[in-house]
Write a structure and sequence with these properties.
Elements lengths: L4 E5 L4 H12 L3 E6 L14 E4 L5 H15 L4 E4 L14 H29 L2 E6 L12 H21 L4 E8 L6 H13 L5 H16 L7 H12 L6 E4 L3 H10 L2 H11 L1
Parallel strand pairs: 1-2, 1-4, 2-3, 4-5, 5-6, 6-7
Helix pairs in contact: 1-7, 2-3, 3-4, 5-6
The protein binds NADP nicotinamide-adenine-dinucleotide phosphate.
Length: about 270
């Protein structure tokens, strides 16, 4: 297997952590980026190189890519995995918080893409792997702002794929369904917080309780399901453009495609 130089964001937790370990064990040179560098300490035993990275900070992104290219002389794969769910009614989530979520999930991702592309173009090869979600193709109740960021990731990636095809750079979307990580609990906490004292307080509390229950239960997929898909996106000669994987992803995207909008809305509102 060809050894690749990889930058993986969001490596301090969940699917990013698992993926960093898996790719390093395969022999790749993996730089794991996150703000909580200490949480990536145990990954060093597998060969992962933790670096401090805040995707909302332009200097931090520039520094991370420069460090990798200075050390390794190249960068072959960027895996944009960092992200979070700021759940809450459109009315309740402040514009400031909505912008913060876009900063992490969309502009942070785009910023790193802009930093790595000149190197990849010069090499005549490279892969950009963007973690979207099944939520980039359908919307769950009380998640409007989050889904807006993931729909944006889908659009950006589809456009980018066409722009980069002539330069030998591949663009791949990872579209996880429900995966057992901290993500669901963070999204549920944000939902409850945003609704305090407002018109959606009661329904938000009920929805958040449902989310905590789902993400603590056995239904959600193991993060390894995502690591395996990312591993294919990194290693396969001809990777797919989309990997739709994990709990609920395929049936829900199918249902969304075939059902009338009102019927799908009903399912999503009553599923939480
Ligand atoms: N879990 C699911 O059901 C699910 C489903 C579909 C898609 N996703 C997506 O999958 C990705 C990974 O999520 P996960 O489930 O593994 O959640 P997680 O366990 O909460 O991990 C999120 C990661 O993002 C990083 N991050 C957040 N803000 C950051 C920032 N400003 N700069 C750099 N890193 C930042 C966190 O690191 P630090 O806090 O240390 O910086 C952490 O490593 C996200 O994009 C999420 O939206 C998740």
């Amino acid at each position: 297997m060809e050894k690749k130089v990889i930058l993986l964001t969001g490596a301090s937790s969940g699917m990013g952590y698992e993926t960093a370990q898996m790719l390093a064990e395969q022999g790749h040179i993996v730089y794991g980026g996150a703000r909580r560098v200490e949480k990536m300490g145990p990954l060093k035993q597998y060969g992962v190189k933790p670096i401090s990275l805040d995707v909302t900070d332009a200097d931090s992104c520039h520094e991370a890519v420069k460090t990798i290219v200075d050390n390794e002389g190249r960068i072959d794969v960027l895996i944009n995995n960092a992200g979070y769910g700021s759940y809450g009614a459109v009315e309740d989530v402040t514009i400031e918080e909505a912008k913060r979520q876009f900063e992490v999930n969309v502009f942070g991702l785009a910023r790193l893409i802009q930093h790595v592309l000149p190197y990849m173009r010069e090499q005549g090869s490279g892969r950009i792997i963007n973690t979207s979600s099944m939520g980039g193709r359908l919307v769950s109740f009380m998640g409007s702002w989050y889904h807006a960021t993931k729909y944006a990731v889908e659009a950006l990636s589809d456009g980018l794929r066409m722009e980069l095809a002539d330069f030998g750079i591949k663009v791949i979307l990872i579209e996880p369904g429900g995966i057992k990580t901290d993500w669901g609990h963070i999204a549920a906490d944000n939902l409850e917080k945003s609704a305090k004292g407002g018109a959606y307080e009661e329904i938000a509390k009920k929805t958040a309780e449902g989310m905590h229950k789902q993400y603590s239960g056995k239904m959600m997929s193991d993060p390894k399901v995502v690591s395996k898909a990312i591993s294919k996106a990194v290693n396969n000669k001809n990777p797919k453009t989309r990997y739709l994987i994990g709990f609920g992803a395929k049936p829900l995207v199918f249902a969304h495609a075939i059902l009338p909008t009102k019927a799908f809305d009903w399912i999503m509102k009553n599923a939480s």
